[in-house]
Specification:
The protein has 288 residues and is mainly β. It has a single domain, classed as Jelly Rolls (Sandwich), CATH 2.60.120.10. The chain has two helices and 21 strands. The strands form four sheets. Strands 2, 3, 4, 5, 6, 7, 8 and 9 form an eight-stranded antiparallel β-sheet that branches. A seven-stranded antiparallel β-sheet has the order 1-18-15-20-12-11-10, with no helix packed on it. A four-stranded antiparallel β-sheet has the order 13-19-16-17, with no helix packed on it. The longest helix is centred in the N-terminal third of the chain and has 4 residues. It is globular. The chain starts with 5 loop residues before the first strand and ends in a 17-residue tail after the last helix.
């Protein structure tokens, strides 16, 4: 039996394959839409009270807004390195056109920042962890890297057999060491060499004061919501690389990603000093 925080692939109304709003999630800030277009389609959309970051998961296209046209250069898949990203502020109508699968990351915003594009070549690629906890992070929209009002977003690639979002951490309180952030995990799993469908697992658990229990098998297109609690690990099954897109926002005045580890497992970070980063990283489609 699935958790109510698990959203299976392609359960949204077309042309969206994912349509998570604050209302549908039962929270107030974060949203995510995944939209599929073919070469003859365009979508006219409105940002409303949200700021958005738009990126191709596969394919490419353009975003037209307020007299400007922004290119989203094609990429073969989420395992093909970083992608271009276009940021749009609140209360704007825009047209997304092209061919492929596009993610629209969103967050409620009070202030609007200028519309702009970040080229794939300018996206910071971070190799995080070590050993079988190694993963690759594309920091296209993280706090301290890209200026926005509330929205924080990034991509994470975990090689097959590795553990990511580990040790488990949380960010559900506004304190000196922690940010209150709602988080969306959107997954894609690389197929095996014979085209077999890959999978992984994702875990969320709470504290005695705020219990939550999620353990889900995830496949391409699946979503897991994290309203609070410790989350991790995200485990990539051996033989199948895992991708997830993180979308976060919170009600606090500071746009920051401050986390605290599960104190029972925090010691694991210290073991990485004596381990090398997985030699498969950085991972790109051509070298997978």
């Amino acid at each position: 039996m699935h958790s109510e925080l698990y959203i299976p692939a392609r359960s949204a109304e077309l042309p969206f394959t994912v349509d998570v709003t604050p209302e549908s999630a039962g929270w107030t800030e974060s949203s995510l839409q995944v939209l599929e277009l073919d070469d003859s389609q365009t979508a006219e959309l409105h940002t409303g009270h949200t700021e958005v970051m738009i990126l191709p998961l596969a394919g490419g296209g353009t975003v037209e807004c307020d007299g400007s046209t922004f290119e989203l250069a094609p990429r073969a898949s989420v395992f093909d390195g970083p992608s271009d990203m276009v940021y749009l502020g609140v209360e704007q109508t825009y047209v997304l056109s092209g061919e492929g699968r596009f993610a629209i990351c969103g967050a409620r915003a009070k202030n609007s920042f200028p519309n702009r594009r970040v080229a794939a070549a300018d996206v910071s690629v971070e190799l995080r962890g070590a050993g079988n906890c190694s993963r690759q992070v594309h920091n296209f929209g993280t706090a301290g890297v890209f200026e926005a009002d509330s929205l924080i977003a990034c991509e994470v690639i975990t090689p097959g057999g590795n553990w990511s979002s580990y040790p488990a951490h949380k960010h559900d309180e506004n304190t000196a060491t922690e940010s209150e952030l709602e988080e969306i995990y959107y997954f894609e799993i690389a197929p095996g060499p014979d085209g077999s469908r890959g999978f992984g697992y994702h875990r969320v658990y709470g504290t005695p004061d705020r219990p939550i229990e999620v353990l889900e098998e995830v496949r391409t297109g699946d979503v897991v919501l994290v309203p609070h609690g410790y989350h991790g690990p995200s485990v990539a099954a051996p033989g199948y690389h895992m991708y997830y897109l993180n979308v976060m926002a919170g009600p606090g005045a500071e746009r920051a990603w401050k986390i605290v580890d599960d104190p029972e497992h925090a010691w694991l970070r210290g073991t990485w000093d004596d381990q090398a980063i997985d030699p498969r990283l950085p991972l790109h489609q051509t070298g997978a």
